[in-house]
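Page 42, continued from yesterday. The earlier attempt failed because a stray header line got pasted into the input along with the sequence. Redoing it now with the clean sequence only.
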Amino acid sequence: MLPLKLNQGQLSLMSEEKESEIEVRQTRVFKKAYKRLSEKQQDQVDDEIDKIIENPDLGTRKKGDLSHMWVHKFKLSNAEVLLGYSWNEGELIITLMNVGPHENFYQEVRKRRAADLKARK
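This time it went through. Structure tokens are written below.
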């Protein structure tokens, strides 16, 4: 697993197997949601992000107006949490968009769709 601590705006990770650099970006929404988590929860989210970096197709690709997003579901303190991200394989870029409980997750993502699409570029 690649070491990852999300305190910086952008991270670049070198995968030993692929010898290609994967750039991980964060939106402001993701940064704010991440900061609200306890240190233990942040470590768990970091582990899930490591899994996404190893296999970006891990999440489920959304359809329709959310087709720009993938969502990875996992347990965090006995609650299901969704991690929304965008994966651009051509440029090896993962953009972390949001992390939070299922409640209102998709409504919030729809409100921020234009900003998320802009962040992908």
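Notes: Residues 7-19 have pLDDT under 50 and may be disordered.
Reminder to self: strip header lines before submitting.
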